[in-house]
From TrEMBL:
Domain of life: Bacteria
Official protein name in the record: XshC-Cox1 family protein
Lineage, broadest ranks: Bacteria, Bacillati, Actinomycetota, Actinomycetes, Propionibacteriales
InterPro entries: MoCofactor_Util/Proc (IPR052698), XdhC_CoxI (IPR003777), XdhC_Rossmann_dom (IPR027051)
Gene3D superfamilies: NAD(P)-binding Rossmann-like Domain (3.40.50.720)
Domain XdhC- CoxI: 18-84, 122-186
Residue ranges occupied by any XdhC Rossmann domain in the UniProt entry: 210-356
Organism whose genome encodes this protein: Nocardioides currus
Amino acid sequence: MAKHDFEVEALEEILEFWRRGESVGVATVVATRGSAPRQAGAAMIVSPDGRVTGSVSGGCVEAAVYDEAMGVISGGAPVLARYGFAADEFSIGLTCGGELEVFIERIDRAGFPNLDVVQAAVRAGEPVAVATVVDHPQAQQRGRRLVVTPRSVVADAGLGSDLLDISVREDALALLAAGHSAKLIYGSGGEPVGEDVGVFVRTYVPPPRLVLFGAVDFSAALCDAGRLLGYQVTVCDARSVFASADRFRTASEVVVDWPHRYLAAEIDAGRIDERTVVVVLTHDPKFDVPVLKVALAAELAFVGAMGSRTTHDDRVVRLRNAGVGDDALDRLHSPIGLDLRATTPPETAVSILAEVIAERRGGTGRPLRDGHGSIHEVSQAVIGAVGCPE
């Protein structure tokens, strides 16, 4: 199941208790360092009767987090727990050498009366962020929240200061645009520079899109792999005989249209954003060149095209003749994929999406055994632009 699906399922589970007027313990990873097993946003839910769903560490510190969660359900204050390296099997900590910060809180109607606003936005496919104070010099301020959408801010009493509300709203909007969740650090009065107040911003955004042009066997394999990675997958082809829903059962939609016309219309309608991945698989200049010209003129996460090096060279000439400049051509991933010596459509799908992941995360594509340092290092490029993550 994709990350987006897990997050939505967790929200729905919490809402079931919320609607019944019950309290539920929620432990959320808000920050990581080094080789941490889970990333920010991973959550464990503890029901009033002690049942557990989800995970914050894959097992290393779950027992300690469970005890803290039962405490907050019983009326205890929210807790920001930090877990580091466990030197032996009897210590509470991580065996992988990383560090986790986990915020453990009670969620119920009294403490989070606007949870249904979050659910409504998620169900409508609208981006929404929940900003929670997880660290504060004044303990009573921990657990305060803002619900932020591109159009509104909903708060019961704010985060503790007007300046903090304004700073967090601006940063939450930037995180929503990037599709990231992060812990941000502010001054005691809400200043954007400081180390006193920690606010975790969890974003709920519609899944990113993977748009495949060309109804071929490779597209079917990419539908399966793309869904696994959390993409909303569209297959588009002008040939109705090939572009049928029966051939692409795991696609979110199958569209019969000229690729360039469909992509331009989706961009104009605002349904394509900076997280969108476009892959062209048709091997036919009359389809490839017009749609790549549109794609390379847009702000997309990744644009790639399948084909041999000879096909690529011919395609580049045609794109230049169509008015595509060198800067745009530098963004074209062609021939697409990492060198895995892939032969079958499923193997080729892995090769293509491995390159997409490497581009998105800044990976090298080299074997991990040939590298050095943490294998879970997370790039802070986007987060650093919107605040001061710890």
